[in-house]
Amino acid sequence: MKKQLYFYALLGLGILLCAAAGLILGFLIYFICAQMIAETVIFAVLLPVFAGGGAIVIVFSQRTLKNMVNISTIATLYPDFNPTENFVINTQGFRRSSLLIDPVSKKFVFILSDSIVPAYRFDDILYYEVFENGYNVHTGDRLNAGKEKFLGSVGIRGSNVLSDHVSTLQAVIKVNDPQSPQIVINYLGLKGVDRLNSDYRDYINAVSKLCLKLDFMLTRSAPDQSKTSDLDKLQELKVMLERGLITPEEYAIKKRKILGI
Fold first, then answer.
1. pLDDT value at position 92?
2. pLDDT digit string (tens) for 131-184?
3. Contact by Cβ (8 Å): 173, 214
4. Residue in 87, 119, 115 with CA at minimum distance from that of residue 105
């Protein structure tokens, strides 16, 4: 209800500003014809302020409406999903990406640039990675969830030299879904950003906050080791193989051991 009132208030304000801009335009034409220089200058300054302000407010009202539609769509698709947190991941222009979390049912939904990603359970998250200029700068899983992260550090990571200009910054979340095995979140536009620019630090802070949310879900979904099923063990083993933590030979040996072959 509050969001509906907010939408109508924004829309009404935008229409009012645009109407005022039309009125100012009429007076401006009159003053130009009457050769009233002082009044012409004043109204020429006021016209773009009211017209631009009205357009911006109307666009914001439409984004609010889109958000309301997304929330309504999610409620229809997943009636048992009751998010208590709506975390804004990133905003590019008038497009917003957000993460909705329901800690009771342990489910989450991403809305990326106004597109709804299917709902997943906390334990569907296998691990996540942060890439800067295509290089992995952080990996999070159930083993290191909550540990200190070194995002945005200047220097050398392994053999990859981090340049002064960052063209890509991504968070890639690996999920247990054969059809859509990963969720990719892009933080930068086409131009990228310089590392010394204050915007870069803002992006890094945004990525760090997302990592904290993912760590929270990884921690909440961590299984009791005494009750871990063979399927869970095989799943963790596969993740270790994909990340190169074990060799294919070690994977085969451990797999046979779990299966009792």
1. 65
2. 999 888 888 888 777 666 666 654 334 344 456 889 999 999 999 998 889 999
3. yes
4. 119
Burial 98-114 (b: 16+ CB within 10 A, else e): bbbbbeeeebbbbbbee
Domain that holds residue 53: 2-72
Q: Give the distance, in angstroms, between the CA of residue 75 and the centroid of all CA atoms in the same chain.
A: 20
Q: What is the pLDDT of residues 113-135, one digit of tens each?
A: 778 888 999 999 999 999 999 88
Are 16 and 126 found together in one domain? Answer: no
Which residues on adjacent β-strands are paired with residue 89?
none
Mean pLDDT of the chain: 83
Q: Tens of pLDDT along 187-205?
A: 887 788 888 888 898 899 9
Sort strands 107-112 and 193-194 into parallel, antiparallel or unpaired: unpaired
Distance in angstroms (rounded) separating the CA atoms of residues 171 and 228: 28
Same domain for 216 and 94?
A: yes
Q: Residues 139, 128: contact at Cβ < 8 Å?
A: yes
Would you say how long the chain is, in residues?
261
